[in-house]
Amino acid sequence: MDKKLIDLKNITKSYGDSVVLDNLNLYIRENEFLTLLGPSGCGKTTTLRIIGGFEQPDSGQVIFDGADITALPPNQRQLNTVFQKYSLFPHMNIADNIAFGLKIRKKSKQYIEDKIRYALKLVNLDGFEKRSVDSLSGGQQQRIAIARAIVNEPKVLLLDEPLGALDLKLRQDMQYELIRLKEELGITFVYVTHDQEEALTMSDTIVVMNQGYIQQIGTPEDIYNEPKNAFVADFIGDSNLIGGIMIEDRLVELLGVKLPCVDEGFGKNKAVDVVIRPEDVELTAPGQGFLDGQVTSLIFKGVHWEIDVMAGGFEWLVHTTQMHEVGSQVGLRVDPFNIQIMRKPENSAEKAVEMDE
Question: How open is the CA angle 209-148-163, to the nearest 5 degrees?
């Protein structure tokens, strides 16, 4: 396992009466692609800015490669930041934009020229040295902003929603570019986004945040398949989230029906949250599943149909390759392994707190 490179210890940050981060602890490994994911106002950008030195925490420490850098300004940290607004200098050509940081560090002319060529090749924009910023598309400008950051050879690249202003196709292209760059450069990426699909596509590790707290840390597979609580399940991908009763180990009651599952350790007759992903719901003939229902809507998504089924007083979301007409009667079937059980929070405040296993 790669060594710990960044360690955030007991970080708290407030703006006036609003607590944005509350005793946050997080470490980031060398060569990791770590994504801070969450809704607006969850604290993810503040966390990134504290790592970058653009914000000072009210309390806590930022440890970088074993040294306390909490009080260091951004230009004295071994990292570079790429923002959503590319912050390119419009009066400079592409070469001068990329060379800006190197010139401040008084690197030789030959070193700078070699670095510019290397960086442009890395972001697939060879020969763009003399072009003006205005002549570039949004995706090209984003690549130049990344090139300008990587020529400084940072140990860490911080990216604050860098693809948010791009259209869907460009954004997808840039996701693959960033994955390739991370592999080629061997540097650590810390990425901020509210886009779940983006996080699942690109990350080694996802940190799901809400209301200044970390809700869950894990691989994309862990976060999607084994959400720790209802917030994570609801925020990451589509899901059917239903209140249930854990009758006993491996048996849950859902919408008045008892279903076998694989979860244990919740006790007997405990209120729980149940998550079933739409791709895990199988549609059968009526009477052949655990519930019967009626198809209420049908949308073709290209690779699958997105179907709503009203069953047991709950509107189920189902992803299937089989079409079922609106109004048709169907049964619902779910493999016990695909029923995820989560402890129900006892109050609304607890929903925002990380729930340890």
Answer: 40
pLDDT band at 123 (very low <50, low <70, confident <90, very high): confident
For the entire predicted model, the pTM comes to 0.88
- CA–CA distances in Å: residue 48 to residues 19, 74, 187, 303: 16, 12, 16, 36
Whole-angstrom distance, CA of residue 164 vs CA of residue 323 = 34
Separation between Cα atoms, residue 238 and residue 224, nearest integer Å: 10
Provide the domain limits for residue 243. Answer: 238-345
Express each pLDDT in 91-101 by its tens digit: 999 999 999 98
Q: How far apart are CA 241 and CA 165, in angstroms?
A: 31
Buried b / exposed e along 141-153 (16+ C-beta atoms within 10 A) = bbbbbbbbbbbbe
Is 196 among the domain residues? yes
Q: How far apart are CA 96 and CA 112, in angstroms?
A: 10
In degrees and rounded to multiples of 5, residue 41 shows phi and psi of 85, 10
Residue 1 has pLDDT above 90, yes or no: no
Closest CA to 334 of 276, 286, 292, 273: 276
Spatial strand order of the sheet with 282-284 comes to 282-284, 329-333, 291-300, 305-311, 314-320
In-domain check, residue 355: no
Higher pLDDT, 345 or 248: 248
- Using left for φ > 0, alpha for ψ between -120 and 50, and beta otherwise, residue 22 falls in beta
> Is 313 inside a domain boundary?
yes
List the beta bridge partners of residue 68. 63
| Residue 165 · residue 115 · CB < 8 Å | no
- End-to-end CA distance of the chain: give it in Å, rounded: 23
| Residues 163-219: tens digit of each pLDDT | 877 778 878 888 888 898 888 888 999 999 999 999 999 999 999 999 999 999 999
